[in-house]
Amino acid sequence: MDNVVYKINATDNVATALTSFKHGETANIRGAEEGVIDANEEIHIGHKIALSFIAQGAPIVKYGISIGTATQDISPGDWVHLHVMCSNYDRRSASLDVVTGAPKDIKYE
């Protein structure tokens, strides 16, 4: 199966991975845009990939709306997740571990 990402709205600057793929692999863009994008890092199924340059402080756009703000510059092909963005919908997400989702702001004894 080919690597595929899906761009939901024409104004989106990210797409969702419909398959997982590795650094350097090419994914076919489907949906509101047709084309290809090369992954700069491993992208897991269901995660976002940048389709264009997103400057620090700029909106992350998915569904045609801003879902968050870039906390650093993001290049086309980069994985877009909590390590490079602040969510508009879940401010606490910034304190969650990127891989496991476990809270980092609570100390368990």
TrEMBL record:
Chain ranges of the SAF domain: 12-86
Domain of life: Bacteria
One of the protein's GO biological processes: D-galacturonate catabolic process
Gene Ontology molecular function, alphabetical: hydrolase activity; lyase activity
Keywords assigned: Hydrolase, Lyase
Keyword Lyase: yes
Transmembrane segments: none
Entry protein name: Hydrolase
UniProt lineage: Bacteria, Pseudomonadati, Pseudomonadota, Gammaproteobacteria, Enterobacterales
